[in-house]
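Run log // design_07
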């Protein structure tokens, strides 16, 4: 028992405390600005206040984060097929039993909270790809392993598109390409695959829902429907631009407080707009700098990993975080169509926060066991 406590204490000391500090900082900023979007919330149960729920989600997620960080990630190698299969079953189930919201059947209604299985599918895919490509006999320079890797990604991606949830579906191929690149896929093959993806865009357009097509058309012409489909994008850009250098102050942003930026999206997909309006350029740089530091720390952990499985896991987590941040900020400032992706650790959301913290905990587990001494410990 004493030995186990000593090992536990040693592992705690091996944590990447700077990465943990960045995580807590972003969670704290998220709670602060979700509170700022709750200006109009009055009465009712305290549990219905989004910023209170976000604190509870963050605490639950941080508990899972530390538990996963102290758990030996190598044990997940054998469990990865089960976890991947379980995530697929949840994706199939949500199409049948899920709760429909805004035309998308993406959620399980659990009474107190809703659960979005596509978030868990991201972790399932990362572990499945890491375990699959960890086998030295599976060289991605051969067609069969490469096709199987694409099949592993294609199954959950297709199920998520059926919901339909284009934003979440976009993340999975990015995870795949990041891990394949680190596994040694050549630039020429990646460029060829990218060209094939571009050639398939007309087919994707033909299969897209009408509201998805309208979002693209509004992106290309913001004045196409300024009071309808283009409203959120237009108000978001106004919020970002009106923040100036130092912002208007907490709960002083007119786009947010007066409801021009709807309270249904302000704490979720457009939380960065609230940050920009209330803290200005300085606040945006602070938030983005925290993310950049996290990207660097995750990349360092991947390089320090002593096994390929751990390296692929961390690269998958890094790709997921990077794409989420990039797309969310880009759509907020009008550089991309609106696809409904939240800002990691900052936007309101239960299953998103918890599963993201579990994924970051996996990266911490790799960091803890980054040298031969800790790697050999149980």
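design_07 sequence
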């Amino acid at each position: 028992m004493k030995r186990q406590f000593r090992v536990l204490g040693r592992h705690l000391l091996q944590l990447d405390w700077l990465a943990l500090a960045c995580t807590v900082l972003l969670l704290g900023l998220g709670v602060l600005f979700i509170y700022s979007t709750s200006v109009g919330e009055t009465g009712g149960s305290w549990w219905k206040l989004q910023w209170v729920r976000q604190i509870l989600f963050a605490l639950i997620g941080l508990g899972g984060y530390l538990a996963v960080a102290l758990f030996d990630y190598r044990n997940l190698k054998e469990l990865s097929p089960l976890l991947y299969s379980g995530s697929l079953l949840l994706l199939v189930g949500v199409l049948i039993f899920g709760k429909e919201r805004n035309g998308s059947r993406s959620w399980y209604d659990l009474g107190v909270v809703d659960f979005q299985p596509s978030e868990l599918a991201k972790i399932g895919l990362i572990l499945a790809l890491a375990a699959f490509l960890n086998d030295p006999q599976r060289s991605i320079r051969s067609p069969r392993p490469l096709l199987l890797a694409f099949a592993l990604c294609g199954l959950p991606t297709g199920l998520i598109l059926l919901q339909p949830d284009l934003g979440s579906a976009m993340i999975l191929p990015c995870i795949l390409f990041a891990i394949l690149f680190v596994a040694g896929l050549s630039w020429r093959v990646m460029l060829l695959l990218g060209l094939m993806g571009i050639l398939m865009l007309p087919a994707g357009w033909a299969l897209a829902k009408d509201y998805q097509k309208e979002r693209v058309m509004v992106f290309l012409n913001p004045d196409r429907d300024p009071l309808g489909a283009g409203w959120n994008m237009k108000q978001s850009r106004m919020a970002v631009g009106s923040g100036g250098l130092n912002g208007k102050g907490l709960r002083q942003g007119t786009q947010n407080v007066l409801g021009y930026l709807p309270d249904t999206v302000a704490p979720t997909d457009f939380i960065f707009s609230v940050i920009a309006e209330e803290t200005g350029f300085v606040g945006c740089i602070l938030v983005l700098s925290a993310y950049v530091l996290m990207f660097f720390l995750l990349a360092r952990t991947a390089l320090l990993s002593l096994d390929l499985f751990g390296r692929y896991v961390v690269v998958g987590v890094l790709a997921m975080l990077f794409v989420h941040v990039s797309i969310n900020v880009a759509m907020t400032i009008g550089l991309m169509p609106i696809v409904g992706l939240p800002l990691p650790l900052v936007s309101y959301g239960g299953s998103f926060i918890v599963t993201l913290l579990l994924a970051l905990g996996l990266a911490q587990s790799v960091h803890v066991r980054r040298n031969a001494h800790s790697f050999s410990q149980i």
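The chain has a mean pLDDT of 85.
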